[in-house]
Every structure is written in C-alpha cells, then in structure tokens.
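Fig. S4 source data, part A: sequence.
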Amino acid sequence: MNTHAQPMPRRKFIAMLGGGFIVAAGSGVTAFSLTRTPHEALAPWQEAGQYEEPRRFALSYAILAPNPHNLQPWLVDLSQPDVVTLLADPDRRLPETDPYDRQLTIGLGCFLELMRIAASVQGYQLDITLFPHGADQALIASRPVASVRFTQAGLPADPLFNSILERRSTKEPFDMGQQVDDIHIAALNPANERVRFSGTREPGQVEVLRALIWNAYQVEYLTRPKLQESIDVMRMGKAAINATPDGIDIGGMPLEGMLALGLITKAGLQTPGTVAYQTGLDMYETMFAATPAFVCLTTAGNSREDQIAAGQAWLRLNLLTTQHGMALHPVSQCLQEYEEMQTHYRQAHMLLAQSGETVQMLGRLGYAAAVAPTPRWRLDEKISIT
C-alpha cells in the first residue's frame, strides 16, 4: 500500500475481505487463488515419521511444536550416539516482547514433550537432563537446554500421539453458539506435577479476561518497537513463506489477492491511519470477543525448569483439546514482562495466580472450524553441525 494515499473506506475494505473482489475480478483471480498454498513450507507435516533412525523419527514430530511467533527456536546436536542435545537458537529471540526468553523457553518445553510422545510410539523412553551445564537466567541461548538419551524400554505409545498432526493454535473467532462445559475443561488437565491447570467458562470471569487480553493486545500493538518486532518476522505471500518457513505467515486467499494488489504491505501495517493498520486491531478485537472460555497454566516459581514444565504441559493441553474436538489459542500479551505491559501483567496475576505463582500460559478455549497448519523448517535445517 502507498502509505501517502488516502485510506480506503473501511466498508469497501471489509467487503473485499469477504471475497467480493474475487468475484469481481473473475476467473483469473480464482485460478490465482488455487496456486497460493505454500506446499514446500508445509512439507514437514507430511514428512513427520518418515525416518527409521529413532532420534530423527521423534524429532520429525517435535519440530511441529507450538512456539512464540512460530520462529522455531530449536537446534539439535546429534553427534553423540543415542543422544539429542537441545540448543536454543540465539537468532530466534524476541527481545522486545520476550526480554527474558521466558516464552522461548516454554516453546522448547513444547518441543521436548512432543519429542517424548513421538519416541514412545517406537517404544523409547527419554531420559531428559535439563540444563546439563546449568540454567542461564539471562539468555537461555548461551548454554545447552537439555541432554536427551534414547533408551529402548518397550513403552506403550502415548495416546496423544494420534493428535499431533491435527494440532493447531487456532487464531480465529470461536463458535459462541457451542457451549464449553465444566466437564470439558476438567478433561483437559495435562497432569504435570509442576504446573497448576485451571479454566473458566463463568460469564463474569470470561468477560473480565476478554477485556484483559484485548487491552493488553492494544498495548503491544500501539507500542511501536513491539509491533515492529512482529512485522519484522511476517512472511507475506507464498514465495516469502516458502523461502523462510517461520515467523508469522500472511497468505492464502483473500490475503494473497490483497498482497498482489498492494492493499497489504509492511509499511501499511505499521502506519496508523491506514486500512491495513486498523484491520490488525479490528481483527483481534472481533476474535477476542468470540471467546467462550479460558484455560491457564501457572507454576509455583519462574525458574527455567518451571518454564520448561509449562511448555510440556501446554503441549499436552493443546493435544488434549485436539483430541476432544476443541480449539485452543495462546494469548500471551498480558503475560509479557516489558515495562509498558506491567499494569496488565499485574492484573493477570491478580486474577489467575495463587500467592507467589507465575502465570506462564493463558489460552482462549472453544470450538472452531479446522485451520491450516503453520509453515516449518525441515528437520535437516534444525540439526546443528558441530
């Protein structure tokens, strides 16, 4: 978008989002839309499990784990037989919104748990030693995160394995006509002894939490360096997504058509007053309003080990929601530790934490139509050569 041009009228823009411009443009755009899937970036979802070597078999699933901004902050060293050494990629940090690498560490916990679940299918037990050279509370990328030894133990397969390829983080409005019951929430407890799980569908509590996550989102969106951090990792369009299959993917129709027409640009997304900028707010306001329930994970402390445990629990929670036909969307803004977020951070802890606890994860819970998987780097791109 030319940021010096007059903004497009909002009503016209919304009509285009609804697909009106596709009809008006005719069969050329229809044919264009059929070619917009970034198949190369999605190939790891089809390649999972296509390895005989046990470590690579498990890792081919682990790389599908949820993680902040889909930056996939993991590297693995396979130089020692039967061992996976997990490292944090220092180039995948989000220093503006995750200054202490807490969310990055949670993502690595998700990775470890998904690797453990996948290994169980082949009967392997994983002996995980966290932070074998000590945990660095400043920058997690400075030391190994875990040493993981594979031992054939004839274990039964974890039943959550069958939900791995269908697991999603569903960043969509949920179906407000389909009720979430207390029994549904209780069934999602990931049963991690280090993590306390809670959830609510009580209308008053849900209304307060909706307001909290929306207010926190606005702080991040309206604080220029924080918004810029997200814009910098956006991959806009099929070619960009295939070339760099991480970050925030902006693709599919009608977005691809709008990109082709110059209606969405990185410059527009960061410029107040443009349609693209305002749509980034409107989209999330609508999404957050369509939230029937919330789930939360807290820990007694906030050590690196606590954060890893929170990631392991979140991964299981996400697989459990998948198994039960539900949708889960992590909403992290109010839990971020930078200065401008402190009011909402304190409110989140007042509402969700018991004395001394740290709220590690908060998620929207409900029902929604299936969404597409997110792009991934292939496994070989994540193996560190030492």
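Fig. S4 source data, part B ends here. The beta strands are 74-77, 83-88, 124-130, 146-152, 195-200, 234-236, 248-250, 293-299, 327-330, 358-366.
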